[in-house]
# Entry
Amino acid sequence: MIKMRVLGLLLSVLLCMTEIFGQNAGIYGKISDKDGGLAYATIGITKLGKGTAANDSGNYILSDIPPGKHEIRFSMVGYQDKTLHINLSAGQNKKLDITLEEAALVGDDIVISGTLSPVSRDKSPVAIEVYRPAFFLKNPTPNLFEALQSVNGVRPQINCSICNTGDIHLNGLEGPYTMVTIDGMPIVSGLGTVYGLSGIPNALVDRIEIIKGPASTLYGSEAVGGLINVVTKDPTNAPRFAADYFVTGWEEHNLDLGTSYGNKKVKHLLGLNLFRYATPIDHNGDGFTDLALSTRASLFHKSSWKTKAGQAQFAVRGVFEERWGGQLNWTPDWAGSDSVYGETITTKRSEILGALPFRIGKDTLIYQVSASWHYQDSWYGTTPYIGDQRIVFQQLLWHKPITAKHRLLSGLATRYTWYDDNTPATEAITSGPAKTNPSRIFLPGVFVQHSWFIDATKELLTGLRYDYNSLHGSILSPRVNYKWDIKKIGTFRLGAGNGYRVANIFTEEHAALTGARKVVFANELKPERSWNMNLQWRRFFSLKKGFIQTEAALFYTYFHNKIIPDYLSNPSEIRYDNLAGHAVSQGIQGNLEWIPSSKLRSQLGFTWMHNYTVYPGPNGEEIKATQLLTERFSATWSVSYQIPFGALSIDYTGNLYSPMHLPVQSASDPREPMSPWYSIQNLQLTKEIPFGFSLYAGVKNLLNFTPAANSIARANDPFNKQVEYDPQGIPLPTANNPNALIFDPSYVYTSFQGRRYFIGLRWKWA
# Structure
């Protein structure tokens, strides 16, 4: 047996040497970093479409290279690429030993969300997914909300079929469980979670980091289900000018502009996003717009400069949007009337964020600050809603290396939230002229995190956070993460932690206003608590041609005091209360990336999950109910191919969702209680043009899927003028209303936009 193995090895070596020493040339050697060989680093000659990957020790052989001058690129996730120009003669066998340097903060796949410290994604003990702009360019979208539909386990949920507001579902958990930050600053929250995701210019995004699972230890409330961190470009590395414009067959126009400028001391980044859709369309014939009309402008400016302690930055963003949806003959003159139904929202939003590193002795501290103001003036039929929210956040981080194997990160944080509106949520309990009693929440906190580098393959991360909420008192959040690299098996990451969410009454109520139902808070809402565990395995497989990268994850979250919206007890209401029992979110997730050559790249992801609640029944029995608007199974995919001629490339992207329970009003509701299986698929063709231009065109929603035409209940009577009620407020069956329904646009799970074509042009001047 041993002789056969030796013989096989000799034959393999002989074949490799034969290839190398044949008529064509070859290169071989070792790719290393400062600690030794880099397993699975890649070597490629882009113009020839040839490439390979290093073995477990960093050694590589790239054979059958035609004689001549070639540009050879060496790369590895978390390291700076290196490019060499060499001239090979026929039969030459050239040795090239390469040393790669770790990437800086703005380099490839350097992440900060998991630990608040820059670290390579592969070396992070926290499982983090990273998505670069090239990923989202495969299916261009006018905002971040729509772009995230391509990410496995993430689903943009439309909450209102008329005004088209929505939130992000992460592993089936509703929007309020996911924190959205910009450059690590929690400024997209509350009302901004509902509308703020539509105002981030795509041209300024460097990458998006996603953590699935509680991140409350570092980020506090609202990070129960996970974190989406939008990292904007560093002005020192951004292109001098970039532009992207596209238009769709529905006459949606989107323009992204970005430019960088400055001097040796200070660099600046300026971005502008303009979006307009002004053509009412009603393809399903229900009398209402299929897509809310919108005019939006977003301006972003960021400055960056170096200090002795690191890189400082200051940024501002402003967003203005006007949108409306409703009956096709609605105009602003009908706002608030009971003759023509419409939902109109005017949003004004401004934000600032900054970070200043400084030193005390040998220690580095970072002061971070952000502030946001969000004003909204809106009508939902005859219901006015005027909301004003202001948030100020400050944080001081202290990075303290203890020894070579032990590092400490600690922080002090404060968050102040002021909110006022015209609803009973802020109504003053006084006599006399009507006054409001704005909500004021002060949330100071302190946290500490310890990193222990056990050895080259193991790391243990522990953390603890204490917050004091001025309304709900003390809240403690611990976490632990363990990373273990096992040679030839892969990397395992185990995480466990506690999360909490303080109910944002105005956010809960605002979401309900879009559904034209009365909001009822059964009791004073208590903070939700959750315990989460997740296990991730990641492995890189080197192939003769290309490579395969795989990920698999198990997740489990247990909730108590979960805040449940009850759509079913009374069709005229949404009742909010803490669950008397418990809730569970659990599932399995997988991602596969296969790159057989420089011309073909494919990705496939799937998520299976089961989200349910358990609560006591009238006789003491346990009742188990599946969560509304949550699919059991979903999948995403993308296939990109660079056509060998004509500088053309083609991208095919899509997703698939299994049925989910929908909020029907009663057993007599004619609408289906479950959504169908559905898939949104897209196709795009891109032509590279000289001087940095790219022309692209394609089709969205290739299969032309839209929800049922009767999704809006009683679209013929949006003001319920022909609805009769019993003394308890329950609709009664009548000749004009045989199914005892009321007008309700909350029965929605995806967009009503059908198939549409698009064409666009990009230009980048580096």
